[in-house]
From TrEMBL:
Pfam families: OSCP
Major localization class: membrane
GO MF assignments: proton-transporting ATP synthase activity, rotational mechanism
Bilayer topology annotation: Peripheral membrane protein
Family, as annotated: Belongs to the ATPase delta chain family.
This protein's name: ATP synthase subunit delta
Gene name tied to this protein: atpH
Compartments it resides in: Cell membrane; Membrane
InterPro entries with a match to the protein in the record: ATPase_OSCP/d_CS (IPR020781), ATPase_OSCP/dsu (IPR000711)
Originating species: Corynebacterium choanae
Keywords for this protein: ATP synthesis, Cell membrane, CF(1), Hydrogen ion transport, Ion transport, Membrane, Transport
Length: 272
């Protein structure tokens, strides 16, 4: 995202958080706003001319704000409309980045509802586990990225898998991610988990170990990584015996390979 869009998104997040902070029913408003923002993204996705007009830099902010009022006011709550007006009034680098910003705001709104309900840690964990399931279940992931399938069909497929197994907010976030992906379903849902952790003031470390880690080992690892990255850490672990020993740690795009298999691979490469 370019600088202008990052600044616009920052102001929109402040608007969203301020609006929810003043609400007399913040959980309801946050959940409603999140769902409605996703619906608005759907409208923009289906109407390229409208999508371009909302981000058109040659028209004034008030003109763009009036456009979103004309289109969306009859269909969304006052809270959602206030966020849309803020977004439309500001300057975005491209229509695509404005759309990305609206998706981010919708996600944050739903995660804010989870936080207020004391469910944010659960949602973060469920999203992470779902990303791992999709990584393991190649057939399901292929169906979710099928370009010939409609967003509605993808949502229905994933909803049938998730039904009764996760919280309502986790399901809503996951269905949005597969219906209108930014990257791919695995990546988008993993990013959602990371966003949930960030809202909790934490960073996600994905740890693959050759053998299960004890609670004490996980606490020690969390403390060590916290010192390295300067943030509190959420540790998600899984076992892969093919590593032979040690572990592989992934934090964002960074990989720390301390596994025996990794060391042997580097030794073989050095001797080749």
């Amino acid at each position: 995202m370019h600088a202008a869009s990052r600044d616009a998104l920052g102001r929109a997040i402040s608007q969203l958080e301020g609006m929810l902070g003043r609400s007399s029913k913040p959980v309801v408003d946050a959940a409603e706003c999140g769902i409605e923002l996703f619906d608005c993204v759907g409208v923009l996705d289906s109407d390229r001319a409208l999508r371009v007009a909302v981000a058109e830099a040659s028209t004034s902010g008030p003109q763009r704000a009036q456009l979103v009022r004309d289109v969306f006011e009859p269909h969304v709550s006052a809270s959602t409309l206030s966020v849309l007006v803020q977004v439309a009034s500001d300057v975005w680098s491209t229509p695509k980045e404005l759309r990305t910003g609206l998706v981010e705001l919708g996600r944050r709104s739903l995660l804010h509802a989870a936080k207020l309900e004391g469910q944010l840690e659960r949602v973060e964990g469920e999203l992470y586990q779902l990303s791992r399931i999709l990584e393991r279940e190649g057939r399901l992931t292929q169906l979710l990225i099928d370009r010939t399938a409609t967003p509605r069909a993808k949502r229905s497929l994933l909803a049938s898998v998730l039904y009764g197994k996760v919280s309502a907010i986790t399901e809503a976030l996951a269905l949005q991610a597969v219906a209108r992906p930014q990257e791919g379903p695995i990546e988008d849902i993993a990013r959602l988990s990371e966003l949930a952790a960030a809202i909790r003031g934490m960073k996600v470390a994905r740890v693959t170990a050759a053998a299960p880690l004890t609670d004490e080992q996980q606490r020690t690892l969390s403390e060590q990584l916290g010192r390295i990255y300067g943030e509190k850490m959420v540790i998600h672990t899984e076992v892969d015996t093919s590593l032979l020993g040690g572990m592989v740690i992934r934090v964002g795009d960074e990989i720390i390979d301390g596994s025996t298999a990794g060391k042997l691979a580097r030794l073989r490469a050095a001797m080749a």
